[in-house]
Structures are given as C-alpha cells and as structure tokens.
Amino acid sequence: MSSCDLLNEMKISAESGHVAYTNFVRVYSKTKPNMVYCFFEGDEDKKYYGTRITIKYENEFQDFTCGGRDLVLKAKELINNRNEYNKAKALFFIDKDYTDDKIENELYVTPCYSIENFYSAEDTLKRILNSEFNMKEKDENFIKILDLYTTLLTNYHDKLLFLNAWLSCQYDIRIKIHTSTRLDINEVLKNYFKNNENMFDVDLNLRANIFNDLKSKDILENTLFKDAPKITDDLLEEKLVLFNSSDFNKACMFRGKFELKFFIDFLKRLKEEATSKNPKILTKKYKCTLSFKLEDSISVLTQYSNTPNCLIEFLDEHLRVA
Q1: What does the alpha-carbon distance between residue 284 and residue 232 come to, in Å, rounded to a whole number?
Q2: Do residues 305 and 48 touch, judged by C-beta distance below 8 A?
Q3: Domain coordinates of the chain in residue numbers?
Q4: Which of 43, 81, 107, 116 pairs as cysteine with 260 (C-beta 3.0–4.6 A)?
C-alpha cells in the first residue's frame, strides 16, 4: 500500500469513529500473510481467548479491544467492506448475551451468555477442587461441595430469574428499535453485587433478602432503571415461562457477571471453611494458597475455565496453519 493509499485508509478509518478499526488499518500488512488479527469486546475477553489462541497458533497475532459487542460487529463490517483486506485473517469474538446469534464464518459467538459462564460452570469448580484444594472426585467432601454448590446455585437462579427475564426483554426492545443505548447494569446494580461483600454467610448459606428488590417490576422500572422502556406484563410473563422451562440452562444463559460473582463468592467462603482449624461443613482441613478475587478472576482462573467444543472447532478451522 502506497503512503497516499495508507493516508486515505487512515482518513476513512478515523471518520468511522472506530478506534480498533483505525488501529487495525495502522498495523495491517500484506507482507505478513499468516498474521491473525483478533477483535474482542473487552480486555477480559482477550485474557480468556488469548491463551487458547496461543495454544492453537504459535505465531504472533494482533489483538484489538473494541469496547463492546456492537463495536466488534462494526469492525467486522468495516473490514469486510474494504477490498484491501480481503486476504486479512481477521477473527471476531462476541458474547451471545440474550440473543440467538450463532457462529458464522470468522465470527465466534459464545454458546452461553458470555465468557464468564465458562468460569462458573460445575466442571470449572471440579478442576479447582482437584488442583487447588487437592480433593479427589471420590472424596466425601468433594461430592458434598458439588451437591452444595448445585443446591445454592439453583436457589440463586430462582432469586435472579425475574431480573434476567426483565433484562432480556430490555435487550429485545433495544434490538427491535435499533438503539445503541444500553442499560448501565453494573453501575445501577452495584449495591446488590458488591465486590467487597460476600453474598454467602460463614456457613455457606445465601444471605437472606439481598436480592428481593430485583424481583419487583416496579422497583426495576421506577427506582433502579428509571429511563428504561416499560415492559408489558404479557411480554415479561412470556420470557419468564421460557427462562423457567426445564430445558433452559440457567447456568449457561443467565447474565455471566452475575454467575461469576456467585462463583467467586462461593470459592472465597469455601476456602475459609476448608482452611479453618475446625471446619463446620467439611470433615477435614485442606490447604489452598490461591486467592479468589473477582477483579482478576478471568486471568487467574483461565486455566480451569471451560473451553467449549465449538470454540475448539472454530480455532481449528481458522488457525489450522499453525
């Protein structure tokens, strides 16, 4: 590409208002045909996918953080619409969220709500118990913990069913009216999911009543999310029936950040219990040196998190040159 062409491309990319695309234009080189360019929603996604891409693709790859799902899709559109990048090996990674989107060509879509759901899975817990607590699958305490986790998670899902259904309705409306405005869920609900406050008591019971407000349509629409569109009772009821059906996998399809918060809080209390001189629930004491913190859990626990078959197949297909 001549300097004149490059300047023109930079001008076009700048006018797009898309920083990741602008950065791609700056670094793209036809002289590196095996270079892979990966576009992610955020830095946390890069931490999860980066490790797995490196395993499949030993050569160098470039990563770009777009700042959201819509901006990843916009980057894909911008690159695909430019003939100059027809031969670029560009891959795009987005969360499913509350959609029915599927993997398509160079676009990877998580089978669950988000990558956080890969961390809060039961299989992830099993790996952590085995590696960090040195528990074996046939141990009495291993089985006891899994049973407790399953019971508590079911209870947690019951408490957050209404909230997830309401948020999903909001997502449907946003897509229907083609608005880029999103609810600031993390900020609005921060008092219900505090980083420094565990949702479990010392006996590993969910603390009472902390999510009661989130079961009220009136509180959600008139107190917490005052500017959000109003959801009709019929639409909400339809979503509740779907989300509460026997074949609906709540652990996979409920909002990932809620699931991860539950998972980390559980592990924190479990560590306190397991390392205590006098455990109340477990029959013996265990060692665990790993710290469980929500803020760095994506990077610290990535080796234990699930890697779905669809991701393995996607990377095999697009990185088979490795």
Answers
A1: 52
A2: yes
A3: 3-114+308-319, 122-304
A4: 116
**Residue range 3-114+308-319, CATH number:** 3.40.50
**pLDDT, position 30:** 76
SS3 assignment, position 219: helix
Tokens standing for residue 173: 């409306």
Give me the helices (H) in the chain, please: 3-15, 19-27, 43-56, 69-80, 116-119, 122-132, 140-176, 185-188, 217-219, 233-243, 250-253, 256-274, 297-300, 309-318
What stretches in the chain show pLDDT beneath 70?
A: 1-17, 321-322
Does residue 295 sit in helix, strand or coil?
Answer: helix
What pLDDT, on a 0 to 100 scale, did the predictor assign at position 322? 42
Per the listing, tokens 């700048």 go with 14
> Is residue 285 within a helix (H) or strand (E), and if so which, with residue range?
none
Could you tell me which of 111, 209, 216 has the C-alpha nearest to residue 165? 216
Cα separation of 134 and 127, whole Å?
Answer: 10
> Given the structure tokens 């397991």, which residue do they identify?
274
pLDDT, the chain, mean? 91
- pLDDT confidence of residue 321: 56
The DSSP symbol for 38 reads: E
Tell me, what's the pLDDT at 16? 44
